[in-house]
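All the exercises in this workshop are built on plain-text protein records. A record pairs a protein's sequence with a compact description of its fold. Backbone structure tokens are a discrete shorthand for how the chain folds in space. Once this layout is familiar, the rest of the handout is easier to follow. As an example, a complete record with its sequence and its structure tokens follows.
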Amino acid sequence: MIYQPYSKLVAIKRWADRGLYDAVTRNFDRLGSEDASIMLRILDHIHVVDRIFQHHLQGLSHTFQAPRSESLPQLEMLEGSAREVDDWYANYVDSLTESDFEQPVDFVFTSGKPARMRRGEIILHVCLHGTYHRGNAGAVLQLKGIAPGRDAITDFLEDTA
């Protein structure tokens, strides 16, 4: 059974992530080396956090020691991997029952501190975290006169109507 609020949130995240990657890919050469590095760091951070929590939801360990990669990946690799993870979240959320979202998940933060969150809280965190940092990335683009991807729920609803 598809639980609508979470499915919608993940669909919006996937749509907004793809819009941002499209804008960055089309305009990456317009960013100076410092801004390009900042952009890659933002995109990598979003992606690593998505992957860390993907592992937590699956009950799997991961090798991340921090909420970023040890070495900065290339844009093309990040984009492809982000698409895969976004698709995974969409399929995962659509496979859960309403009660599954209340199930607690025990894990350890990259700081080493133990934690517990409900599956729904993890999904909400991943979606809100991505929104916050897409805003950071959009600001970098706007400072260069580049329009970032659309990111608002209303934009999503208009585009998918």
